[in-house]
């Protein structure tokens, strides 16, 4: 390990020990599905169940999981696009799930979001300049039009957009550039936290690398906090300080980014890692196969969500739900297999 | 193209096995209102029975158009301008449409990226499978049904009889992709074109689908043309690899050779810009600056010259030919043509 790496590792727990900027406490989100038949009872889809996460200032918390695991729902709850069913999201000393009107607007100014599809998240009839300017009008942060224009130019330069493209429309930009407009729009209000929902998934690898570097530089310069959602493990590991692995609406494992690769604990994390295509043709990988498919999140949920597919499933897993517990410093796992070891 | 390309095809032939597909100097252009887009501009490759050739490239590199050209499944604006495609002794460029219909689905089948759009949403899975099998064989209704059930079982779908009565929307993405694969192999094709077969799937499902494809290939001796942008899948699946950029081949060699000794600057850029799980350092990723060229304007210089850190003045004036730089290793680069050697990471003195 080189000196810089050692320093980075030593630095991380310190970052995590400060006061969290955003604290998600026992958050649940249910969606009510109307029954298929007339007069049939509506069913409940548990998109998020009892998720608790702390996000510390200046860090990147990566959230990874397969489709339908609730990672996007979590992101949307944080920016209050979804109203959580129960639980709290504490930001700046107040529970933002209870807020509405002006106080909520003030919080939203601090927590911005970047979406996966760079095209559909931009208004096709707005030029780049107008798109980036719009948040300043909505939040009335700058009343002087020339100052607003100055700010737009500033932010465009910061994200690496050509200022000559000010009056271009979204369709005239490439995918990578459009995502830069989205980043610029999020940055123009000087937010503290940015929720990035699969921001690089739709981009080609060479462009993806450019955008990932941009995220990194912005964080270093502005001290931003990211909640970075992705399904790509190598991207998550590259950008994140800590990683939360989600499955069926729950956090299964929470650990520093390096540990997820070097020392994964949860059977689901191991299976996820073994499913990733190899990094070289000479990699001999030991595959841990999960049986069957992801169970449905609809209806009553009993026991560990992985119980039906886990090769290490015990009788207890079918009835009891393991909570997310710290088994090593900074490493939390929701699995009885490790809880017992610690207890002993 | 030049003599060297012929050499390429002959040389590949010594890699054992029987030739099933041979494409020479393929040019597919799209005639749009804004001009002619040279989507595929002189591509040659070959594929043997039971082998897998992967075509790698970014979006717009022409990899999907190359695959569609092989079975002439092009949009109305697209046209094969030049070149030859020979599949199992059949001239695919000139074969009449009626013959082609017989080939598609029986000898050649195709797996597309989006499994949902590959199935008709208003028909049951079973109905669609039986229809396909009966169209390409003389089996009766009952036999075709049994064959379909057997195929669904082969691709690992639990309780296949029940799934025969399911509509596509009732199945998950991974299940739909399995149905597509079951349909693709149900007539024992000699050749499968898999166009980003797992891009829309989760990693755990992806690994299931890939090992399924590999297993079927071993069993049936099918040749696979695999289109992907994910190099990890290439390392797992391919025998040979062709790297495409802006409609032309950059590099064409065996998979192991490409991994251990990549020679084209674009391949280097592609390899460097992927974040790796095993990296411990939190540093910037290496990127390829700029964006791919407009396909209407290519063909006068090396297509990669504007983004290439090693480009010289000559690169802006001449189109590099695909040359055999090392035995079985073909590269299209003026600065990497056997006589001149480029060192990866070297500073460009010509700037």
From TrEMBL, chain A:
Record-level Gene Ontology MF annotations: ATP binding; ATP hydrolysis activity
Keyword match Transport: yes
An individual GO BP term: peptide transport
Domain of life: Bacteria
Spans traversing the lipid bilayer: none
Family matches, as Pfam families: ABC_tran (PF00005), oligo_HPY (PF08352)
Domain ABC transporter: 33-273
Keywords: ATP-binding, Nucleotide-binding, Transport
PROSITE patterns from the UniProt entry: ABC_TRANSPORTER_1, ABC_TRANSPORTER_2
Family: Belongs to the ABC transporter superfamily.
Protein name stated in the entry: Peptide ABC transporter ATP-binding protein
Source organism per UniProt: Tractidigestivibacter scatoligenes (Olsenella scatoligenes)
Automatic annotation (TrEMBL), chain B:
BP GO annotations: peptide transport
Keywords noted in UniProt: ATP-binding, Cell membrane, Membrane, Nucleotide-binding, Transport
GO molecular function, one term: ATP hydrolysis activity
UniProt domain ABC transporter: residue ranges: 21-271
SUPFAM superfamilies (UniProt xref): P-loop containing nucleoside triphosphate hydrolases
Keyword flag Nucleotide-binding: yes
Membrane topology: Peripheral membrane protein
Gene3D superfamilies cross-referenced by the UniProt entry: P-loop containing nucleotide triphosphate hydrolases
Keyword Transport: yes
InterPro entries documented for this protein: AAA+_ATPase, ABC_Ni/Peptide_Import, ABC_transporter-like_ATP-bd, ABC_transporter-like_CS, Oligopep_ABC_C, P-loop_NTPase
Entry's localization field: Cell membrane
Location (main, coarse): membrane
GO cellular component: plasma membrane
Family to which the UniProt record says this protein belongs: Belongs to the ABC transporter superfamily.
Protein name: Dipeptide/oligopeptide/nickel ABC transporter ATP-binding protein
Organism of this sequence: Tractidigestivibacter scatoligenes
Source organism phylogeny: Bacteria, Bacillati, Actinomycetota, Coriobacteriia, Coriobacteriales
């Amino acid at each position: 390990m080189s000196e810089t790496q050692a320093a980075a590792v030593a630095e991380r727990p310190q970052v995590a020990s400060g006061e969290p900027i955003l604290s998600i406490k026992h958050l649940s989100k249910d969606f009510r599905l109307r029954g298929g038949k007339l007069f049939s009872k509506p069913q409940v889809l548990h998109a998020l169940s009892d998720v608790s996460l702390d996000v510390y200032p200046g860090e990147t918390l990566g959230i990874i999981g397969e489709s339908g695991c609730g990672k996007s729902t979590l992101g949307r709850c944080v920016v209050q696009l979804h109203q959580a069913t129960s639980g709290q999201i504490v930001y700046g000393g107040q529970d933002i799930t209870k807020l509405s009107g002006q106080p909520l607007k003030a919080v939203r100014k601090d927590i911005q979001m970047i979406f996966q599809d760079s095209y559909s998240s931009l208004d096709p009839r707005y030029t780049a300049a107008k798109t980036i300017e719009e948040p300043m009008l909505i939040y009335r942060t700058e009343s002087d039009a020339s100052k607003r224009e100055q700010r737009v130019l500033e932010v465009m330069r910061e994200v690496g957009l050509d200022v000559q493209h000010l009056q271009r429309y979204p369709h005239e930009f490439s995918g990578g550039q459009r995502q830069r407009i989205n980043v610029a729009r999020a940055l123009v209000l000087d937010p503290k936290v940015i929720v990035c929902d699969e921001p690089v998934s739709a981009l080609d690898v060479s462009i993806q690398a450019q955008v990932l570097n941009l995220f990194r530089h912005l964080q270093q310069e502005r001290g931003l906090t990211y909640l970075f959602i992705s399904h790509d493990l190598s991207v998550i590991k590259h950008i994140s300080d800590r990683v939360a692995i989600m499955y069926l609406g729950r956090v299964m494992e929470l650990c520093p980014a390096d540990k997820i690769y070097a020392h994964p604990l949860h059977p689901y994390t191991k299976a996820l890692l073994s499913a990733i295509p190899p990094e070289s043709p000479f990699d001999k990988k030991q595959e841990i196969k999960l049986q069957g498919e992801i169970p449905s999140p609809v209806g009553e949920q009993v026991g560990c969500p992985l119980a039906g597919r886990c090769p290490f499933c015990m009788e207890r897993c079918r009835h009891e739900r393991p909570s997310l517990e710290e088994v090593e410093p900074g490493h939390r796992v929701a699995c009885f297999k490790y809880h017992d070891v610690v207890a002993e | 193209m030049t003599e060297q390309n012929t050499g390429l095809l002959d040389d590949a032939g010594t890699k054992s096995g029987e030739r099933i597909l041979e494409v020479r100097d393929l040019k597919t252009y799209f005639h749009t209102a804004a001009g002619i887009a040279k989507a595929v501009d002189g591509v040659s490759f070959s594929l043997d029975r039971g082998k897998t050739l992967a075509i790698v490239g970014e979006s717009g590199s022409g990899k999907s158009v190359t695959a569609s050209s092989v079975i002439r499944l092009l949009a109305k604006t697209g046209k094969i301008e030049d070149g030859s495609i020979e599949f199992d002794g059949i001239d695919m460029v000139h074969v009449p449409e009626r013959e082609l219909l017989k080939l598609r689905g029986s000898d050649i089948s195709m797996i597309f990226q989006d499994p949902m759009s590959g199935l008709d949403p208003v028909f049951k899975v079973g109905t669609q499978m039986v229809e396909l099998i009966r169209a390409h064989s003389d089996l009766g209704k009952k036999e075709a049904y049994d064959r379909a059930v057997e195929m669904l079982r082969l691709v690992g779908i639990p309780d296949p009889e029940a799934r025969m009565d399911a509509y596509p929307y009732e199945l998950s993405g991974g299940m739909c992709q399995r149905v597509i694969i079951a349909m693709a192999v149900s007539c024992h094709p000699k050749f499968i074109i898999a166009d980003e077969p797992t891009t829309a799937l989760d990693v755990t499902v992806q690994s299931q689908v890939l090992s399924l494809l590999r297993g079927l290939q071993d069993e049936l001796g099918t040749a696979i043309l695999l289109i992907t942008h994910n190099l990890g899948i290439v390392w797992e699946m391919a025998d040979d690899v062709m790297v495409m950029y802006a409609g032309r081949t950059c590099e064409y060699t065996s998979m192991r050779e490409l991994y251990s000794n990549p020679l084209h600057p674009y391949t280097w850029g592609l390899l460097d810009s992927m974040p790796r799980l095993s990296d411990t350092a939190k540093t910037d990723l290496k990127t390829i600056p700029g964006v791919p060229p407009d396909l209407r304007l290519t063909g006068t210089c090396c297509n990669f010259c504007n983004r290439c850190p090693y480009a010289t003045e000559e690169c802006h004036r001449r189109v590099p030919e695909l040359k055999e730089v090392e035995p079985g290793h073909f590269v299209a680069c003026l600065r990497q043509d056997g006589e001149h050697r480029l060192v990866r990471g070297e500073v460009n003195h010509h700037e």
